[in-house]
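Annex B.
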Amino acid sequence: MVEIYGIKNCNTVKKALDWLAEHEISYTFHDFKKEPAREEKLTEWSKKVSWEQLVNKKGTTWRKLSKEEQDNVKDFSSGIQILLQHNSMIKRPIIEYNDLILLGFDDNVYLSTLKLPH
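Arsenate reductase: predicted structure tokens.
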């Protein structure tokens, strides 16, 4: 089963959800606006991808932080804490499939990883 985490109105999340629907892959969607990410989940993900990859430094939320706040995000602990405070800063979507974690949307990666038999 595919688990997908993100924010419904995020364009990248929409692309991923559309792709899953188009390829008839069933999934469970977890909306950070309704189900904020928990520390345990962020820690679990960071064992498979680095905590740095989880922090979306290209997004609006990151840019709204002060320079001091940005500079204080320098290790696992501070990275997880900022993500707990600002779930919208988590790179999206996050897809869990089997033992894999996929970040963002990439058609080729999805095709090679998620193409399941119907």
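The mean pLDDT is 93. The chain has one domain: 2-114. Further annotation is deferred to the next reporting cycle.
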